[in-house]
Amino acid sequence: VQLVESGGGSVQVGGSLRLSCVASGDTISRYCMGWFRQIPGKEREGVAAIDDYNYTSYGDFVKGRFTISQDNAKKILYLQMNSLKPEDTAMYFCAAELAPCRHIDTVASAFYWGQGTQVTVS
User: What is the number of other CB atoms lying within 10 angstroms of the CB of residue 2?
Assistant: First the structure.
């Protein structure tokens, strides 16, 4: 599966962004889909994950601010991010793993990921 993210950018504290990820090459219903983020020099951090049954999981730091969703027919994954904080600044990657979404770490260690989209909050 190939993944291409878009929607990142610079936003003020408290603002919102909607990230999108277009998948190609395979049906996303086979995968645990999600987002992880990474700051240079630090480990990947799982942000959100969703499975074929639309069961979702989030990193503890999300605290109700983000919502992951998917359109299986269009092979698009979304991440709506609200109430953004400076500590949310990172490169955000769309990820896919051929495994059940048992834990948010599934996407943090995913085998497939896109090129990333930068989110800057200031």
Answer: 11
Residue entry with tokens 């992880």: 36
Q: Tell me, what DSSP letter sits at residue 31?
A: S
95: exposed, middle or buried (Cβ count in 10 Å: 0-12, 13-18, 19+):
buried
Residue 113: both structure tokens together: 């990921």
> Phi and psi at residue 8, in whole multiples of 5°?
-70, 175
Q: Which amino acid is at 66?
A: F
Residue type, 96: A
Each of the 122 residues of the chain gets a pLDDT tens digit; together they read: 999 999 999 999 999 999 999 999 988 888 999 999 999 999 999 999 999 999 999 999 999 999 999 998 889 999 999 999 999 999 999 999 999 898 899 999 999 999 999 999 99
Cβ(5)–Cβ(17) below 8 Å: no
Torsion from C-alpha of 75, 80, 84, 86, nearest 10 degrees: 0
